[in-house]
């Protein structure tokens, strides 16, 4: 029972989320991968607060920031999906690759 | 100290449900697998003594995933999972990248000499967080508030199909709205 256990769980969640964000073709599933990555950051931040610096609230503030980042990502992601779907009927990342050229 | 068994169990379940997100076919099941992963992470946060943040995570993620189910069924080609189809690209490369990152992080976790514990957890961690956000971390809180407000404005702008500038011109001076199907009674 230690800091390392929680950090490994966080790293696992981050890796699973990264895999999803890289492989998924659907924009909504890609956002799920990003959320899982932030999920791992929450575990790591909570563990750091408890095991490294419980005297100050900085670790807790970091979790608040990550939770806010999740909410912002979700809202903006869905707004972008709505806009691009309405404009061009695109719901897959491969169909929205024009900027690559 | 913390009891190790629930931490292990919650962590393993969070990882399993996180992996299920990319294995299941049905979009509703996928979303609830993601919700389960968040709830187990909230369990870890509660175990670490952060009661307020754990409960916030539970409440926020339940609402967020219920909204997400609606969007998933709106935008996915295969919402019910009745027609199994591959929605992946570049699986092998991505698995190599994700696996490499996990191995690198794990090696780092066990090699780094983490600092000794400084201080003790406060009797009321929620009070400590509130005092911090309204005191020394006020700038963080204000930045977050501004970012959330910008998000509200930007998401409404992006999601609006035809706003008043489309209907009444850039200076909003048109006598009649320019609609695809004119309404009114013809006066």
Automatic annotation (TrEMBL), chain A:
InterPro entries: NADH_UbQ_OxRdtase_chain4L/K, NUOK/Mnh_C1-like. Pfam families: Oxidored_q2 (PF00420). GO terms for biological process: ATP synthesis coupled electron transport. The keyword Acyltransferase does not apply. It comes from the Bacteria. It is found in: Cell membrane; Membrane. Its main location: membrane. GO terms for cellular component: plasma membrane. Its EC number is 7.1.1.-. It is an enzyme of class 7 (translocase). GO terms for molecular function: NADH dehydrogenase (quinone) (non-electrogenic) activity; quinone binding. It is a multi-pass membrane protein. The chain crosses the membrane at residues 6-24, 36-53, 59-85. Keywords: Cell membrane, Membrane, NAD, Quinone, Translocase, Transmembrane, Transmembrane helix, Transport. It catalyses: a quinone + NADH + 5 H(+)(in) = a quinol + NAD(+) + 4 H(+)(out). NDH-1 shuttles electrons from NADH, via FMN and iron-sulfur (Fe-S) centers, to quinones in the respiratory chain. The immediate electron acceptor for the enzyme in this species is believed to be a menaquinone. Couples the redox reaction to proton translocation (for every two electrons transferred, four hydrogen ions are translocated across the cytoplasmic membrane), and thus conserves the redox energy in a proton gradient. Belongs to the complex I subunit 4L family. HAMAP family: NDH1_NuoK. NDH-1 is composed of 14 different subunits. Subunits NuoA, H, J, K, L, M, N constitute the membrane sector of the complex. This is NADH-quinone oxidoreductase subunit K. It comes from Halosaccharopolyspora lacisalsi. The gene is nuoK.
